[in-house]
Design brief:
Layout (H helix, E strand, L loop, with lengths): L4 E6 L3 H14 L2 E7 L4 H9 L4 E4 L12 H6 L5 E6 L5 H4 L4 E4 L4 H15 L12 H11 L4 H8 L3 H15 L4 H10 L10
Parallel strand pairs: 1-2, 1-3, 3-4, 4-5
Helix pairs in contact: 6-8, 6-9, 7-8
Length: about 200
């Protein structure tokens, strides 16, 4: 079994996506788990169930009005590191929301270095699987298992979306589970929710 880190790419250009896939195959360390061409409703199911370590996204998949919140949108589906792949120049505000930014003109070794950097940034908190979830984390987990989005959870508990994201990161760190599907199974197995509560 490969120890390579898994990458989900959201790249509208098949040529660019295949080129990146070739770079990852040639240099090792990263392997492509899947390729999406957009962030449509049909892509959301794939995003929810992907077990990627890194999401590599071209910010142009988001329309101009929502480009500044693209990273927040992706955090609804995954706790993976999110790297922007710039095919067109983005504003500094858009760039700073991502864990790292790769340019279309970066050399392959630079791409790999930046992917490593993004992973390191996301993995700063030490893993402590088996650590007990707090009461609030269990409440957040139940909401996630019921399919609620971060904004809906934030509104429900009258907390900020960033607090919800922090709770979700802590839940993933403590349980060792990254996907929504996996967290739902965890909640069911630990009697936090009933099967009828899951949509």
């Amino acid at each position: 079994m490969s120890n390579n880190k898994k990458v989900l790419m959201i790249i509208p250009s098949t040529v660019v996506a295949r080129g990146l896939e070739s770079v990852f195959a040639d240099l090792g360390e990263f392997e492509v788990e899947g390729i999406l061409s957009d962030v449509s409703r049909s892509s959301e199911a794939r995003l929810r169930n992907v077990d990627a370590d890194v999401v590599l996204v071209d910010p142009t998949v988001f329309d101009y009005a929502s480009r500044g919140s693209g990273r927040n949108y992706l955090s609804e589906f995954t706790d993976a590191a999110v790297v922007a792949f710039e095919t067109m120049p983005c504003s500094e505000e858009v760039r700073k929301q991502y864990d790292e930014v790769i340019s279309l003109y970066d050399e392959p070794v630079t791409v790999i270095r930046k992917m490593r950097s993004a992973l390191k940034t996301r993995q700063e908190a030490p893993k402590s699987e088996g650590e007990e979830l707090s009461a609030r984390e269990k409440e957040i987990l139940v909401c996630v298992a019921k399919g609620m989005l971060n904004k809906e959870i934030a509104d429900c508990f009258n907390i900020s979306i960033y607090t919800v994201i922090t709770h979700r990161k802590n839940i993933s760190r403590k349980t060792g589970i990254k996907t929504v599907a996996g967290l739902t199974v965890y909640a069911l197995l630990n009697n936090l929710i009933d099967i009828s509560a899951v949509e």
